[in-house]
Amino acid sequence: MPHQEKPRFDLSVYLVTDRRLAGHRGVVETVRRAIDGGVTLVQLRDPDAEGRALVEEARALVALLRPRGIPLIVNDRVDVALAAEADGVHVGQKDMHPADVRRLIGPDRILGLSVGSLAELDASAAALDLIDYLGTGPVRRTATKTDAGAAIGIAGLATVIEATTLPVVAIGGVDRTNTAAAVEAGASGVAVVSAVMAADDPAAAARLLAEEVARARRL
Ligand code: TZP
Ligand code: MG
């Protein structure tokens, strides 16, 4: 069913998928478990996947998530997002330009942009009114994305947050130990790959993050 209006979205516990880290459990089953712990948004990310398989996976995730009011965003692949009627697209600095993505996905889907520094925020200035949220990091070194760039720390995260009115989700090396610091720095939530995808118990791992986000908001 096509979208009527942009879905509301909550960046609190933002799960980014990883097929390798999900292992034999698989991406859809890992997401199924994780959402019991309080995941608020899911991004399907698989830079190596072939289109047909990725659309099938995106459709399976939409079927799982939409009844629960959890949006599905597709990393980079506008075509896959449209084919599977996902809720949005997330792009990085070298992916298709946000203006082109917005033209393709229309006004009513969520559009996220990765911004790793103030310089990248400045370079993206013309696109920012087309975007719904920023993903900023890596907060710490991460083995999950080899080209993620240098870690910017909580201080670097705070610098970007202070320079924009857009909601910012912290990404890269985020786990239960630095979630509260990210939220205290003004992040609207935390985006994680390994902390949940590689966990023995994805629901428990997501729940810990959700609790940390809630605790930090009360501080
Ligand atoms: N974008 C910036 S860092 C990163 C992505 C997708 C990987 C984050 O993975 P992890 O395992 O949460 O550090
Ligand atoms: Mg990308």
From TrEMBL:
2-[(2R,5Z)-2-carboxy-4-methylthiazol-5(2H)-ylidene]ethyl phosphate binds at T142, A143, T144, G173, V193, S194. GO terms for molecular function: magnesium ion binding; thiamine-phosphate diphosphorylase activity. The keyword Metal-binding applies. Mg(2+) binds at D76, D95. It comes from the Bacteria. Residues 13-196 form the Thiamine phosphate synthase/TenI domain. Pathway: Cofactor biosynthesis; thiamine diphosphate biosynthesis; thiamine phosphate from 4-amino-2-methyl-5-diphosphomethylpyrimidine and 4-methyl-5-(2-phosphoethyl)-thiazole: step 1/1. Its EC number is 2.5.1.3. Binds 1 Mg(2+) ion per subunit. It holds the Pfam family TMP-TENI. GO terms for cellular component: cytoplasm. 4-amino-2-methyl-5-(diphosphooxymethyl)pyrimidine binds at N75, S114, K145. It catalyses: 4-methyl-5-(2-phosphooxyethyl)-thiazole + 4-amino-2-methyl-5-(diphosphooxymethyl)pyrimidine + H(+) = thiamine phosphate + diphosphate; 2-(2-carboxy-4-methylthiazol-5-yl)ethyl phosphate + 4-amino-2-methyl-5-(diphosphooxymethyl)pyrimidine + 2 H(+) = thiamine phosphate + CO2 + diphosphate; 2-[(2R,5Z)-2-carboxy-4-methylthiazol-5(2H)-ylidene]ethyl phosphate + 4-amino-2-methyl-5-(diphosphooxymethyl)pyrimidine + 2 H(+) = thiamine phosphate + CO2 + diphosphate. Its cofactor is Mg(2+). CDD domains: TMP_TenI. Keywords: Magnesium, Metal-binding, Thiamine biosynthesis, Transferase. GO terms for biological process: thiamine biosynthetic process; thiamine diphosphate biosynthetic process. Condenses 4-methyl-5-(beta-hydroxyethyl)thiazole monophosphate (THZ-P) and 2-methyl-4-amino-5-hydroxymethyl pyrimidine pyrophosphate (HMP-PP) to form thiamine monophosphate (TMP). Belongs to the thiamine-phosphate synthase family. This is Thiamine-phosphate synthase. The gene is thiE.
